[in-house]
Amino acid sequence: MDVFLKTPRLVLRTVTAADLDDVVALDNDPEVMRYLNGGRPVTREEVREGALERLMGPGFWAARERGTGAWLGWFQLEPTAREGEAELGYRLRRAAWGAGYATEGARALIDRGFGELGVRRVVARTMTVNTGSRRVLEKCGLRYVRTFFEEWPEVIEGSEHGDVEYALTVDRWRAARA
């Protein structure tokens, strides 16, 4: 397993096929998936051919608790179609919520992206009503950019309020570190 980075409490490493059971459990927790698919269950096959296949690609890492090795979820810093831009994302087990793991992992990825990978702008999107994720993005230095509305295949409670985009530029990141 390739370790991408370590923080005081996390190890982010390449996602592998051995993570299938953990991703299936994560994607079948209705609270974890509340703002993604309304919390509906997904089959093991859907996860294997959809989520896991994508997670095994570039820009995604499995997160484990450094002290215990417990699987916590995954993080994303994936290049977008825009030159120098990467999308930040994460999905963590409910048991890991509220412990600061999302902020710790996201900050570490932002630092790696700006400091070593040549990223010039980090973006993130979530539902307007997802106040927990919005707070993590703000703690990581991202700022609200816009509210937007898209057509999604499934109507989810709260989707009538749209989605929000947050962003952080490398210049603003440098200024905050100075």
Question: First CA to last CA: what distance?
Answer: 35 Å
Note the main sheet: 8 strands, mixed
How would you describe the shape?
A: globular
Number of domain units:
1
Query: Proportion of β residues?
Result: 25-35%
Q: CATH topology, anyone?
A: Aminopeptidase
According to CATH, the homologous superfamily is: Gcn5-related N-acetyltransferase (GNAT)
Keywords, separated by commas or semicolons:
178 residues, alpha+beta, Aminopeptidase, eight-stranded mixed β-sheet, 6 helices
Quick summary of this structure?
The protein has about 180 residues and is an alpha+beta fold. Helix content is about 30%, strand content about 30%.
Your description of this structure?
This protein is of the alpha+beta class. It has one domain (3-177): 3-Layer(aba) Sandwich (Aminopeptidase), CATH 3.40.630. The chain is built from six helices and eight strands. The protein has helices at residues 20-27, 34-37, 44-55, 101-116, 131-139, 170-177; strands at 3-6, 10-14, 60-65, 71-79, 85-92, 121-127, 143-148, 163-169. A hairpin with a 5-residue loop joins β4 (71-79) and β5. α1 packs across α3. The longest helix has 16 residues, at 101-116. The N and C termini lie far apart (35 Å).
